[in-house]
Amino acid sequence: MENNTGIGLNRISLFSKFLLLASLNWFLFRWAEADVHYYDFVLREKNFTRLCSTKSMLVVNESFPGPVIRVHKGDTVLVNVHNQGYYGVTIHWHGVKQPRNPWSDGPEYITQCPIEPGSNFTYEVNFSNEEGTLWWHAHSDWTRSGVHGAIVIYPREGTTTPYPMPDDEEIIILGSWYTEDVNKLVAEDLRTGADTPRSNCYVINGQPGDLLPCSRESTYRWVVDYGKTYLIRIVNAAMNAELYFAIANHSLTVVGMDGNYVKPIIADYIMVSPGQTMNVLLTANQSLSHYYIETRQYDTARPDVTDYDQTNATAILMYSGNYTAPDSPFIPYLLPSYEDSLSANRFLDRLRSLASKEHPVDVPLNVTVKMYITVSMNQLLCPNASCDGIDGNRLVSSLNNISFENPSTDILLAYYRNLSGIYTTDFPNWPPSMFNFTQADLPMNTTIPIQGTKAKVLNYNEEVEITFQGTEVLNASENHPLHMHGYSFYVVGSGYGNFNNETDPKTYNLVDPLEVNTVGVPKNGWATIRFKASNPGVWFWHCHFDRHLSWGMNTVMIVKNGGTPETSIRPPPTNMPSCTLPYITWVEDFDDSLGDVN
């Protein structure tokens, strides 16, 4: 076991460790087979200066990005989160499946209520078959813009990666920077129904880079040795942007994505969606000099919508040794432009699961549940056009024409305790009406969703196929990175236009499809995924563009227990953050029949 704490922070007391272990004594057998790691995360405000201005921002352990969690496959991590900020926060362990333990998954009002200022909560993060790179981030408001960090998952002791061991590794986190308090800006936009704020720049490991004002001295620099091979762990933590990424004059070999291995592909650039991670190998084989590491937005909105963040964030790869530094680093000329969809498609089409004997795929072949889910931008009508969205209305978004509303308490607690009045179980398998979803200038009646807190219920071990269909509602189609909590899934097919349920399934890849936790649904196109519902619990589905999440492009998936203790949700921790429970009756015994939930 090891104890990891932040810089200058007090170590967690031995007494509190023993109390925590005592409360989890029934789980000690699993721990005996893997390591347990301890981290303290202290959330507090700190001043940061970027783009010539200073602001106070909530961060973990006084760092931006936050601390790195390092584990081996199958380990457990206990993270004691102390909230010394001014508002409630939750933390999500993105891509960690948390078998039978949704209590520590983290999304606000889905699996817990916020950790209030002045209080703390210890997350138990259970790793299973993940291997590679994942990440953690706040999952309340837009706080994750400053509260996030990488998770490094090494192979089990005694095993190795399917590629030669690199000489060293580097973590690169791509993020968004706002010069003002982004939560205040978003709160006001949600109140008025307006569009949400654009970032002022992108950052690499917290820094904008020397192409942007007041940023030259703080540019992130990475020193490499000629002839060595490095594993770069890349995280897209940006709030609302898919990103292109390249390193001047250096090829990248992609070997992993979202905590899974892929067939190695060599590329001059990558395209990574928010929420996704990639592992790439780089060999330092160029002339001793300085080379820009650069990222910029890949934008798929209408060509006439140009108010997106067009900054280019940079870091510098610097070779060690004796040489005269250039006046300016080499530029990655092969980095695609902002709206270059062909380059994105060329890259994405090459990605496949490794599908080896040691790392096999297990694509569900006996589908028992099929769903067809439209992914849309929408509006709610405001009296006398009194809102600040399109035509004086309120901007919202939806899945199957349902715009998700956060409940008054978390859905997991309501499900586990059979609390009524919190959510309903009627999220539909199909859109309410069928039409040409990708047609321009769709009529007004297609733009207005219903609002509700609706969940989809699945029986344990059902094999599920979901086709997500992008739409041109409000003439606002773009790519949508959809993220699933508690699971990874196989992307068996994708394409442009309306999904054809007779011809498109014939194109499915059931041999080596990509296994991920976040899938990009193409602009005016579709993507089909498959998974087995083998992890009981309450799990969030949402777009990882935070503006779409805030507007309701979300739903909840409830996977029922499997009938044995080993296939059932674990009991809740005794110290879950408290929720306000209005007019609700507690049911003493857990019953997942769902008879009293509606």
From TrEMBL:
Source domain of life: Eukaryota
Broad class of where this protein is predominantly found: secreted
Cofactor: Cu cation
EC number in record: 1.10.3.2
GO CC terms: apoplast
Keywords, ordered alphabetically: Apoplast, Copper, Glycoprotein, Lignin degradation, Metal-binding, Oxidoreductase, Repeat, Secreted
Cofactor note: Binds 4 Cu cations per monomer.
A Pfam short name: Cu-oxidase_3
GO biological process entries: lignin catabolic process
Coiled-coil annotated residue ranges, if any: none
GO molecular function: copper ion binding; hydroquinone:oxygen oxidoreductase activity
Residue span(s) of domain Plastocyanin-like: 44-157, 170-322, 430-561
Catalytic reaction annotation: 4 hydroquinone + O2 = 4 benzosemiquinone + 2 H2O
EC category: oxidoreductase
InterPro entries in the record: Cu-oxidase-like_N, Cu-oxidase_2nd, Cu-oxidase_C, Cu-oxidase_fam, Cu_oxidase_CS, Cu_oxidase_Cu_BS, Cupredoxin, CuRO_1_LCC
Keyword Signal belongs to the record: no
UniProt-annotated location(s): Secreted, Extracellular space, Apoplast
Purpose: Lignin degradation and detoxification of lignin-derived products.
Family from the record: Belongs to the multicopper oxidase family.
Protein name: Laccase
Organism of origin: Quercus lobata (Valley oak)
Name of the gene encoding the protein in the UniProt record: LOC115975457
